[in-house]
Each structure stands twice: as structure tokens, then as C-alpha cells.
What does this fold into?
Amino acid sequence: MQSTGVQLTLVVVDNSTRSADQQVLDDIAQLELSSVYVKSENVGYFPGFKIGAEKLGDLQGYDCVAISNVDLSVRLDFFEMLKFQIEVVHEKVGIIAPAIISASRGGDLNPKTLFRPTRYSLLKNIFIFKRLWLFKIYRKFSDLKVKSAVGSRLPGEFFYSPHGSFILFTKSYFFAGGSIDYPQFLFGEEDFVAEQCRIAGLKVQYQPSVVIIDSDHGSTSREKLDFIAREHVKSLRYIVDTYHS
It folds into this structure.
């Protein structure tokens, strides 16, 4: 960790179906930081985050809280860059969206969405995701979108939603009443936290000096595509019914 004056608490929520791996427990115990290991049933991504966050206590007491998927790593200067951004971040910023670099997709996964989608566009996606052949085409176009957007966003720019694989919540998010109680198993967490910011009068801000390396869908690539499509539909339906009714 190439930074001084940083206090870090790591919470590992194990959502796997197997029993706890002793080697993993030993590795966590040897870390020179405060750490907690939680063995959980496979409750899903954001529900698992909620379980882990409860181990932290009062989230308003932290300068920043991060959720990370399992297939990500941070650049060596991550904590130094994040520390600087936290020191200068405006109080109206609820989420810092880092650069999430995907080598296989050829670019930065942030921003996830520039502008708030309409109810119609979400219903259109539900239609697409219910049809596997359309869903496959949609995913290919999404990859092309990532490549074409390289370098198009400026540091400090605001947009609607961050990519959900790694999200940085500022203290303002929790002081403003932002929730992390998103009940869906997978997907849609980007829209959920974006809506939480919108309701609280907060913004999502892009800061590419904070860099994450994405090894691409380590937790979902093994799942069958029809399962992934169904989970997308469930999450989209939740967002439509909750925020676009």
C-alpha cells in the first residue's frame, strides 16, 4: 500500500457455496490491516455488501466505503490517489466513480450510464433481455461502446450511474441518507445507487486518477447466459417499479 496516513478496514464476504478456505483465512489474518471474514450463504452481490457493511458499524464514521467484485485489483497508487480525491471532493458528491480498466473489452467501464434512463428505455431492455438472441447482440454492442468511449470523459465530470463492479461511496452519501439496501441478487445496483444519489441531491463524479483493473466477470462468466439474462430482467423490473412507476 503506497500511502501514508491511511487506515483501512477490509471486510471479505464469502458468498461461495463451499466451506471456508483455511488458506484464505490465513492470508487475511496475515494482512497488516484491520480485517473481517464473513461466511455467508450466496445472497448475491449487493445483499452480500450489506452484510459486510454491517460489520463496519456506523458508515458515517468512514471517509469512504467501497464495494468491490472479486475479479478486480487496484493499481499500486490506488490509496494515494483515493486519499487525495477524498480530501478535495465536494460535499455534494455521493459517489466517486474510478477508472475501471478492462483489457479484454478495450477500455474504461466508467461511466456506466451518462444520463438517467427513461421508463421506456428500461422496458425496452427488459424486452431485449427476455430474448436470449437479442441479449447476446446487446452484450456485443456494449463491448463496442466501451472501446469507443476511451478518453471521452474528463476528470471531475458528472454522470448518472457508475459501473457496479467497484463503487466508492463518500461520507456525504451516508450523511444524506443514501441506502445500500438493494434486494436484488445481481445487476441493477448502478441504477439503484444513482437513484439514491438523485433523491438525496447528490452527484456521481468521475475520477480516473483512481484506477481499478478488471479481469472481466470472474463471478458471472461461469454462469449460464440465460441465468444472467433472467437476473438482469429481475433487476430492471425492480428499478422500473421502484423509481419509474
